[in-house]
Request: fold
Amino acid sequence: MHEEYAIKISSISADIPESNIAPILCAGVTMWSPLINHGCMEGKKKVIGIVGIGGLGTMGIKLARSMGHTVVAFTRSKDKESTCLKKGAHEVCITSDPESTAQ
Reply:
């Protein structure tokens, strides 16, 4: 790996266990890049849709919300609705529910 793409884990924070840092570096970067590339740090607030609520999706919800945007989560599973709201989604669309997608 080229040194420009490496980060020393101990430089992030001594208070965060190493096992908690890996998801930030993987899912965090994976979701951070499209948010940045689509102007989410340019000041104008947006409505951000996050499709698929797994590891990446939950990270995307948290990042977009922390940037001050309105976040709509899209998931097939009604069981994930409370997780989406806890992670910061303003709305949840259950794509397997015709009533939820009619809005």
Residues 2 and 65 are 32 Å apart (CA to CA). Residues 9-101 form a domain with the Rossmann fold fold (CATH 3.40.50.720). The mean pLDDT is 86. The longest helix spans residues 18-37.
